[in-house]
Amino acid sequence: MKRIGFLSFGHWSDTPHSQTRTASDTLLQSIELAVAAEELGADGAYFRVHHFARQLASPFPLLSAIGARTSRIEIGTGVIDMRYENPLYMAEDAGAADLISGGRLQLGISRGSPEQTIDGWRYFGYGPSEGDSDADMARKHTDVLLTVLQGKGFAEPNPRPMFPNPPGLLRVEPYSEGLRERIWWGAGSNATATWAAELGMNLMSSTLKDDEGGAPFHVQQAAQIRAFREAWAEAGWEREPRVSVSRSIFALTDDRDRAYFGREGDSSDHVGYIDATTRAIFGRSYAAEPDVLVKQLAEDEAIAEADTLLLTVPNQLGVDYNTHVLESILTHVAPALAWR
């Protein structure tokens, strides 16, 4: 059995074939798709965060709105770039969204990836300490967030406050118990997956990772997941960790599917450089008739290792079509693979 959700990058563009012409379109349709996904029986609605781009950027208002409109589906991010974040303010926003949803928030975070601007986090008022890199800064922000989410007081109270305080040091409010265990790290390498396990974060692995050994993408990703689980066990955490992988998967069941994705059937892994020094491998897409998809996906070692599968959706094609995409996988593919 697997949890199956969708992952949206939340693109919008004022072009003839886009169903999301504005930011408003994307936000409102994201809410409607999450509601439709819950009605279909999907398990998660996740959203990517990109700054300075015509994509979703401020996740907590969106997640709160979805939490208020739904009752069961997990709501989350995949992922938030911690270089841009004030971890205390983030803890307040995340706590509020989690309480509104009744404890359904699954918060995916990471050190970030190449963005639309050069050092965009500097415009948000952040910069690495002397001798640190931007990745170091992201991890320091993460350390603060994880500490604050434990719910322990740390701030000295005013001896003459406007309103009465509880005894002792004060914590960030609102506090949502259990959220600390629902933080995920988007790992791009085996080393960062191991680091996430040591800190007690769940693992979120996308369709991109550092090329470590030259094997096919799904084989490398499966090795990354096993390294994470080994590190988790060695760290002595008592709870079971969660692991998600994301994939572009399209069941070709009608003429629309074949028109949009019929040429994706010959997709394969790609290798390239995401910066001057990082060689990365990009996983293939899947697009075929359901019976063919079942055979292909059964051979994907990383999907087999994960407990959660996030289906990347082409959000610019609109709510109705993306609902169809999800329904096709849940109806024609998932049962045959014993995911349902």
UniProtKB/TrEMBL annotation:
Q: Which InterPro entries match?
A: Bact_Lucif_Oxidored (IPR050766), Luciferase-like_dom (IPR011251), Luciferase-like_sf (IPR036661)
- One Pfam family of this protein, by short name? Bac_luciferase
Top-rank taxon: Bacteria
Single annotated GO MF: oxidoreductase activity, acting on paired donors, with incorporation or reduction of molecular oxygen
Alphabetized CDD domains for the sequence: Flavin_utilizing_monoxygenases
Per the record, its GO cellular-component terms are: cytosol
Where in this chain does the record put each Luciferase-like domain? 9-259
Q: What is this protein called?
A: LLM class flavin-dependent oxidoreductase
